[in-house]
């Protein structure tokens, strides 16, 4: 008596549709995520060892190395600075300005800008820095 051999059918899982779905999900997250835009202003912030870095980026005034002023990434003339700051903080409860200045900007220019900010009625000025890595002895 001859017995027929049973053929065992191997089941194969098709991964193509799963890879397609993962690609679509990845694409969805890339498109919907928000990216932090940095202005095209070349700036080298001073470094500190002990100061904490600031996370405030809402109202930013930037002083580039050549002394140009940018408020919210838009160029501002020095003579218009007080009126621009007054208008920007008119309806704001938190009158905090983030002042980003290149480390090569003269100290007098930074103090002049800080004085103009105080003249515009701002209560607090925050100056972000880059945290230096600790050196091992």
Automatic annotation (TrEMBL):
Which is one Pfam family of this protein?
Answer: ExbD
Q: Which family does it belong to?
A: Belongs to the ExbD/TolR family.
Question: GO biological process: any one?
Answer: protein transport
Q: Does the keyword Ribosomal protein apply?
A: no
Which positions, given as ranges, span the membrane? Answer: 12-36
Q: InterPro entries from the entry?
A: ExbD (IPR003400)
Give the UniProt entry's GO cellular component terms. plasma membrane
Protein name, please? Biopolymer transporter ExbD
Q: Which PANTHER family match?
A: BIOPOLYMER TRANSPORT PROTEIN EXBD-RELATED (PTHR30558:SF3), EXBD MEMBRANE COMPONENT OF PMF-DRIVEN MACROMOLECULE IMPORT SYSTEM (PTHR30558)
Membrane topology designation: Single-pass membrane protein; Single-pass type II membrane protein
Major subcellular location class: membrane
Keywords of the record:
Cell membrane, Membrane, Protein transport, Transmembrane, Transmembrane helix, Transport
Q: Which GO terms describe its molecular function?
A: transmembrane transporter activity
Compartments in which it is found: Cell membrane
């Amino acid at each position: 008596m001859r017995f027929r051999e049973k053929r065992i059918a191997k089941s194969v899982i098709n991964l193509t549709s799963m890879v397609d779905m993962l690609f679509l999900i990845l694409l969805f997250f890339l498109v919907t995520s928000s990216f932090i835009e940095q202005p095209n202003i070349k700036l080298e912030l001073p470094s500190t060892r002990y100061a904490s870095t600031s996370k405030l980026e809402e109202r930013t005034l930037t002083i580039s190395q050549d002394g140009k002023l940018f408020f919210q990434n838009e160029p501002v003339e020095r003579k218009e600075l007080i009126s621009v700051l007054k208008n920007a903080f008119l309806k704001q409860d938190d009158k905090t300005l983030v002042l980003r200045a290149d480390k090569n900007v003269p100290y007098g220019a930074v103090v002049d800008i800080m004085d103009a900010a105080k003249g515009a009625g701002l209560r607090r000025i925050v100056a972000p820095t880059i945290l230096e890595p600790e050196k091992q002895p």
